[in-house]
Write a structure and sequence with these properties.
Layout (H helix, E strand, L loop, with lengths): L10 E12 L6 E12 L3 E5 L6 H9 L6 E6 L2 E2 L5 H11 E5 L10 H12 L3 H14 L15 H13 L5 E5 L7 H18 L2 E5 L3 H7 L2 E6 L2 E7 L4
Parallel strand pairs: 3-8, 3-9, 6-7, 7-8
Antiparallel strand pairs: 1-2, 1-4, 4-5, 9-10
Helix pairs in contact: 3-4, 3-5, 4-5, 5-6
The structure holds adenosine-5'-triphosphate.
Length: about 240
């Protein structure tokens, strides 16, 4: 088992001895075991590992929707593991974007309204949230489909809307959990290219969970592997 602590010029994230145990009456599940890891600003990290190895658990900790059982998670100098619920909500709203395999769009809302939704929750004035939503849709090449509902869009287009929603507040950290799992290979490459472009343009960190080795090597500047909650491999290089 390895503990990765690559020295960094400009770290965004430092995980120090992070574990996550799901307590159960009969037997507790140890989903992550003593993970230490430093991730740079602008780095594109592919996370691989068999089903149940702890990938989603780690993404949930990074996105602030879950907390570690022990250890610290320093993002931009703040230990988010020690944040209050309000602080975590603010962190998620300002610093993180998340995309999933299932696009999680609201079927009754247009593309624009779906992208606007986080701004509605944040209390952003209408004009400003519309402008942000339109510019995010433009960035993923969907300005001309702004008034369409999800059922009127292809799977790849729906994922681009979900991506626009995740990127509309220009987060420094984008987390993608198998975002191309429901897409054909050409459409998947298109989505991956959007992730790469966003990272390059904003010097944003992207962490991508995938089972696809080829996709991982096209995308990543760094590849990490989990096995049974352990970090077992950490390789720099590759990517565009
Ligand atoms: N809420 C929970 N309660 C109990 N155990 C859980 C919970 N969530 C996840 N686990 C367990 O933690 C371990 C890691 O799960 P996780 O979902 O992180 O794996 P994964 O690598 O993302 O898997 P997959 O590739 O199938 O999505 C698994 O053994 C899983 O059963």
């Amino acid at each position: 088992m390895i503990s990765s602590d690559a020295t960094s010029d400009d770290p965004l994230i430092r995980l120090n001895h992070v574990s996550r145990v799901y307590p159960r009456k009969s037997v507790s599940v140890i989903a992550l075991r003593d993970i230490s890891l430093t991730i740079q600003r602008g780095q594109r990290v592919a996370m691989l590992g068999r089903s149940g190895s702890g990938k989603s658990t780690l993404l949930n900790l990074l996105s602030g929707i879950d907390r570690p059982t022990s250890g610290s998670i320093i993002v931009d100098g703040d230990d988010i593991a020690a944040h209050s619920s309000d602080q975590l909500a603010r962190y998620r709203m300002s610093s993180v974007g998340v995309v999933f395999q299932a696009f999680h769009l609201i079927p009754t809302l247009t593309a624009t309204k779906n992208v606007e939704l986080p701004f509605v929750f944040a209390g952003t004035p209408r004009k400003q949230r519309l402008a942000s939503a339109m510019s995010a849709l433009e960035a993923v090449g969907l300005a001309n489909r702004a008034s369409h509902r999800p059922s009127e869009l292809s799977g790849g287009e729906q994922q681009r809307v979900a991506l626009a929603r995740a990127l509309s507040h220009q987060p420094k950290l984008l987390l993608a959990d198998e975002p191309t799992g429901n897409l054909d290979s050409t459409t998947a490459s298109d989505i991956i290219q959007h992730l790469v472009d966003y990272s390059n343009t904003r010097n944003a960190t992207v962490v991508l969970v995938t089972h696809d080795e080829k996709l991982a090597s096209d995308f990543a500047t760094r590849t990490i592997r989990l096995h049974d909650g352990h970090l077992i491999d950490d390789t720099m290089g590759a990517g565009q």
